[in-house]
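Weekly modeling sync, notes
Attendees: AB, CL, MP (scribe)

Item 1: holo prediction request
CL wants a bound-state model with iron/sulfur cluster before deciding which constructs to order. AB pointed out that an apo prediction alone won't tell us much about the pocket. Agreed to run with the ligand included and paste results into these notes for async review.

Input as submitted:
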Amino acid sequence: MRAAIYTYLMSLRRESETLADARFFALCVSHRATDVKSPIGSTLGLAPEQLSALLTRYFPELMDARTATQCMKVRLHTAVGGIFLCQCHGGDGEARLRSEENSDLQKLLLDHRAGLSAAEEWSAAIIATACFGDDHLWQDLGLTEREDLSAVIKRHFPLLHLKNSGNMKWKKFLYKQLCDQAAIRLCQAPNCSVCDDYARCFGPENASGWNLLSAHG
Ligand code: SF4
């Protein structure tokens, strides 16, 4: 179903907008479209007006013929011929995780933004919220591989991408920036090169068998 929703979204994309951004947002939205209990904006980390602006900009036809109270997940599932028994009571809900940690992560990203597009703000909110997931960050976002995430960060937060010259795992890297900014020593070693946890921070960020769209399609 996720694959069908992704394909549907991409079929509606505004062609004048960047293909890579449309693909990123379509993957993130389709990934969150099967959460039964939470509104899609909430699970993405976007306020209702942010989600509406994002979808209007990248997938304008999706917003047509939809009432403000209709659940976006129901709309998406219905559009691809599915039945979705949602329990989120409609609407797009308030973004959850309005925590200090989420705000700090968003600020970190936006402090390094390219300053070219509103897509940076939406991407920062979505990436910061996905940091609360349990898997690699690219998996928590619903992307197909780590390079998808690296490309988004390079495009929208280029200075942050440059800082990660050691190719540290992205979630680890973002949190390490917060710790460094706050001068908090969560790391056990004086520097990475002598740290016993080196493999946890810098090891391969792949996942054998991970193929989100086909696995959950
Ligand atoms: S490798 Fe060790 S010192 Fe470096 S960020 Fe990871 S935990 Fe901290």
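Recorded for review: The pocket of iron/sulfur cluster is lined by residues 176, 187, 189, 192, 195, 197-198, 201 (CB under 6 Å).
Action items: CL to compare against the apo run; MP to circulate these notes.
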